């Protein structure tokens, strides 16, 4: 029997993406009829942490997982991947954006975007503004530390942007981190942020909970994130199916997660031996709801489109789409 592991932060009140991950797995599992094919689904909680990633990987290997979908957190993924490499288990990353995950671990296949690309877009957008001061804050997650480092390195070469160490000296503010830490930063520094023009967050914050969590009228709030892949006919069909059941559309990383199961389903239909899976994943083109993926040697989907989202009138609008 083939076993597929699904792992992310599944804790009560854990990751903001928990419902996205679970719902995408369940819908794809049903639509692709995995139960009828006698494929087993194994859930593991990685707590979006270093220790949780290690424990989840250990448990999935013990339970005989042939494939893994997750980890959503780059922190959990980085510490879990060495275990999968030893067992030659393909791991599909629908949401973990750290560049090192695919650079260092040859079992990792990324479907979402990566931090270095997002850093380029953040730098280009911020550098186009008139001369201004910018405060860059971040949490201690791998995403926060690595992306902020990439952005600061790039912005250090931009003459119109002056990086400041004090929030009180900033005209604009960029905070990079997970959803909870980003909201905590905004609430803790509410008074000082009222004197700034623009507050930028990154991809985790493209979520309706941001609207419920922050009631700022000032500063203007933006999020550097991903466009929704609804331009594909197949994606629109899945989004509409989800809406009919839930009365809302799915959020960022839903379709990337769904696509992971589509790829596994197509790979299994080829009826090759497990020894050939890695090579086939790199060589073949995979038709999915997010488009045709060819991972290649670097194991990156290279399909992501980015956007600068603006929170305005209690809803998200795309302020700028990057092609």
TrEMBL record:
The keyword Signal applies. It holds the Pfam family Peripla_BP_6. Transmembrane segments: none annotated. The keyword Translocase does not apply. SUPFAM superfamilies: Periplasmic binding protein-like I. Residues 2-148 form the Leucine-binding protein domain. Signal peptide: none annotated. It comes from the Bacteria. Keywords: Signal. InterPro entries: BCAA_transport, Leu-bd, Peripla_BP_I. Belongs to the leucine-binding protein family. This is Amino acid ABC transporter substrate-binding protein. It comes from Kordia aestuariivivens.
